[in-house]
Amino acid sequence: MPAVINRDECVSCGTCVEECPEEALTMDDEEIAVVNVDKCNDCGACIEACPSEAITVE
């Protein structure tokens, strides 16, 4: 299952985007992280990197 971003918890820091080895995350127009589910391989790097714990895998 790909990562899921809690938009209410995301602090727009971009750390997850920088840490994703698959380049599966981007920032949207509101500077909230977005997951490209076709690229996400469930490695968990974004979860570990997120300072606000806004990312989970469901």
Shape, per Cα inertia axes:
globular
Query: Under CATH, the topology is which?
Result: Alpha-Beta Plaits
List the helices and strands in order.
EHEEHE
- Structural class call reads alpha+beta
Count of alpha/pi helices = 2
Give the proportion of residues in helices.
10-25%
Q: Which whole number gives the mean pLDDT? A: 96
- What does the largest sheet look like? 2 strands, antiparallel
Distance between the termini: 6 Å
In the residues, how many domains can be counted?
1
CATH class: Alpha Beta
Number of strands: 4
> Strand fraction band?
15-25%
CATH architecture: 2-Layer Sandwich
Rounded to an integer in angstroms, the radius of gyration calculated over CA atoms is 10 Å
Strand order of the largest sheet: 1-4
Cofactor: [4Fe-4S] cluster
Function: Ferredoxins are iron-sulfur proteins that transfer electrons in a wide variety of metabolic reactions.
Domain 4Fe-4S ferredoxin-type: 1-30, 31-58
Protein name: Ferredoxin
